[in-house]
Amino acid sequence: MEHIFYFNWEPQLMMWLQQVLGSAGAFIASYISALGEETVMVGIMGFVYWCIDKQWGLYLGINLTAACTWNPMIKNVVLRPRPYMVHEGVKCLKPVHSGDIMDPLIQGYSFPSGHSSNAVTVYGSLAAYRKKTVLTVIAVVIPLFVGISRFVLGVHYPTDVFAGWLLGLVCVFLLSWLQKVIRQDFDAPCGW
After folding, report:
1. What pTM value is reported for the model?
2. Based on the number of CB atoms within 10 Å of its own CB, is 141 exposed (0-12), middle (13-18) or buried (19 or more)?
3. How far, in Å, are 36, 67, 79 from residue 82 at the CA level?
4. Tens digits of per-residue pLDDT, 169-186?
5. Which residues, 6 or more positions from 5, have their beta carbon under 8 angstroms from its beta carbon?
6. C-alpha count within 13 angstroms, C-beta hemisphere, residue 40
7. Rounded-to-integer distance, Cα 20 and Cα 94, Å
8. How far apart, in whole angstroms, are the C-alpha atoms of residue 124 and residue 46?
C-alpha cells in the first residue's frame, strides 16, 4: 500500500547532515522546525487578525486553511513512508507525534512536508499582502530553514520539502488571485 520512492542522493544527504551537525545541529533544527508548526502558524494568524489588521488576518486564515487541508489529502493519496522508516542510516531525531515512530498511522506520511508548506503559506502570505522588504526576506529565509530542518531531523526527504514549498506557493499565489477575483465579483455593481 505504501509507495517508497526517492532519489539516491536524498538519504545520503540526510545521513551526512545528521553526522556532520551532530546533536547540536539536531537541537537547533528542532527549534527552527517549530517555526512551521500549525500552532505557531495559527498564533501568527491570530496576532495579525486581532492586533494588526482583520483583513490581513482573514487572508492568512484562508491561505493557511487551504494548506492544512490540502497537505494531508495529498499525504493520504501518495502514502510515502518517512525516510527513517525506509533507511536504517537515517535517524528520526524528532518524531512528529508521540508513540511508535515506525507506525505511519501515528507519525503520518512524508510527502509533502506540512511544516514546509505551512511556512511558505504563512510567511509568504505576510509578504504577499504587505509588500515590504523585511517581510519578503522573512518569507524566503524562514521557510528555507524550516524545510532544511525537516530533512536534518530525518522526518522528510528533501523532495518532500520541495513539494511542501510548492504547495505553499500554490496557496499563496492561487488563493490570492482567487480572493481578488471573488472580491471583484462581489464588489461589481449589479447590472439590473
Report:
1. 0.88
2. exposed
3. 18, 20, 9
4. 999 998 888 877 777 766
5. 80
6. 17
7. 17
8. 16
